[in-house]
From TrEMBL:
Residues 48-158 form the Organic solvent tolerance-like N-terminal domain. Involved in the assembly of lipopolysaccharide (LPS). Required for the translocation of LPS from the inner membrane to the outer membrane. Keywords: Periplasm, Signal, Transport. The keyword Calcium does not apply. InterPro entries: LPS_export_LptA, LptA, OstA-like_N. GO terms for molecular function: glycolipid transfer activity; lipopolysaccharide binding. GO terms for biological process: Gram-negative-bacterium-type cell outer membrane assembly; lipopolysaccharide transport. It holds the Pfam family LptD_N. It is found in: Periplasm. The keyword Amino-acid biosynthesis does not apply. Residues 1-36 form the signal peptide. PANTHER family: LIPOPOLYSACCHARIDE EXPORT SYSTEM PROTEIN LPTA. This is Lipopolysaccharide export system protein LptA.
Length: 214
């Protein structure tokens, strides 16, 4: 089947916020200052897929079948990607499926020859607030550091992570899972690595309350 290639000129976007119970961790400024490549926001978005459906009235584009989105160093691979645009031109994308039922995300870190990588059964990216969310079988790695859980939210502006062990039945909100655990592997940053010392030290904070999703 002939592949369809679409090019969009804009600053990419994939939403966030939510309520949760225990087993929620705030990884504030993970020793890895994982700031996305700033130049990517000014690059055109290129999309490749087997099928595409466009609704110009509702500003919705649906890409299906071996979807590959690229914007500068940013690459998202999935089986299905839905891109919407608001009245101000900001875009949001929801990627789902892929090899093994997993969607994948990769982007170069600002000023370093290193990448942020993440995956989940669903990935949502919002360009307006520069937040990326990973749902179910979620995993994010930056350099040698990584976090795992059933839900991970990464805020590129504040450089903070929210990780929980479960997702509610609506598939949208983090939830407590009895006996559930989240995992974080943080590699020590030696004094011999001046780049590593630019970030703040890792702090793990139990989050008793999390803002409701708007």
């Amino acid at each position: 089947m002939k592949r369809i290639v679409s090019s969009i000129v804009a600053a990419l976007p994939i939403p966030a916020g939510l309520p949760a119970l225990a087993l929620t961790l705030m990884l504030a400024a993970l020793a890895m200052p994982a700031q996305a490549e700033r130049a990517d926001r000014e690059k055109p978005i290129s999309l490749e897929a087997d099928r595409i459906s466009v609704d110009d009235v509702q500003k919705v584009q649906i890409f299906e079948g071996n979807v590959v989105l690229t914007q500068g160093t940013l690459v998202i691979r999935a089986n299905r990607l839905v891109v919407t645009q608001d009245a101000e031109g900001f875009q949001k994308g929801i990627a789902s499926g892929g090899e093994g039922g997993i969607a994948r995300f990769k982007q170069k870190r600002e000023g370093r020859d290193e990448y942020i990588e993440g995956q989940g059964e669903r990935i949502e990216h919002d360009a307006r607030n520069e937040k990326t969310e990973f749902f179910v079988r979620a995993w994010v790695r930056s350099g040698l550091d990584e976090v795992k859980g059933n839900y991970i939210s990464y805020d590129a502006l504040s450089e903070k992570y929210l990780v929980t062990s479960g997702v509610a039945a609506d598939g949208k909100t983090p939830a407590k899972v009895e006996g559930g655990r989240v995992r974080a592997i943080i590699q020590p940053k030696g004094k011999a690595d001046p780049e590593a010392n630019k970030g703040e030290a890792l702090t793990l904070k139990p989050a008793k309350t999390v803002p409701s999703k708007e």
